[in-house]
User: Fold this.
Amino acid sequence: MRAYRLHETLHEANAGLELRLHDVPRPEPGAGQLLVRVRAAGLNRGELIVGHGALPSGGSAPRPAGGEAAGEVVGVGAGVDAWRVGDRVMGRCSGAFAEFVRMEAYEAMAVPAAFDWTQAAAVPLVFMVVYDMLVMQGHLRAGETLLVAGVTSGVGVGALQAAKAIGSKVIGTSGSAAKLLRLAAEGLDLGVPTRGPDFVDTVLQASGGRGADLAIDAVGGSVFAACLRALAYEGRLAMVGYVDGSLRAEIDLAALHAKRLMVFGVSNKLRTPQQRAEQVSGFTRDWLPLLHAGRIRPLVDRVYPFDRLDEAKACMEAGAHVGKIVLAGSADD
Assistant:
């Protein structure tokens, strides 16, 4: 079968990572796994772009590329009872940019009937991260205010959509006024056209001087301090990305202390299989019904053919999209 691998390079134009298409043996599902015929796979900055979570490993061996997929189950491993051949599933997995991929059964979720493959492939990573930020750690409630620095990213748009389904007010920042205007149709209450940290006064004014109950920093260290200053009493700040490449930021300890603020990171890199399974279980219970009911629908900006993954990656690097970029599955059966 055909599958993409990530190779480390010394070419700065490729930011240290290069995607190459290989012919590799078709995998077989192990115990507790599904074999999925990939119909679509989502792109994510953190796995493809150095400076946003994807760091050279220091080794020369190529790595499987792609972290989420949607498709049909074509094989079931030992000990799997909940899934059958032919089931439509979506989930996190390693090596999604391929014709077939192994997926842990605990990661698999049923594709909503109204979703096409590209919409399904846009769900697993983004909305699992958003569930972590808004529910598991952020405890966002109806009537509260959410601030998203970098709201036009995949995670940002997902957070906007989920927060509106919860019943929260959403303020978002972006360097593109046109992108913010597009998100008005997704329920964005207030868009602040800026790439910098100059949004604090606007957030305070829009919230009646109170500040945001939960803030998401999807930009990086350049806006971290501003996100902290924009928080309300007992506000929470989620650190999820650093597209600005800035990995250092100041923390106002007096504000952290007096306002009883909470700062937390959002990453799956060190989570155990049990922790990941618990996250999927909670998402399936709390949010999957919202997707099935159409109250949350992923925003897919662009879909690229399987053979044009390099173009999809370049689009992501350029920041030309709003929401998700998806790679279509290979047409070969």
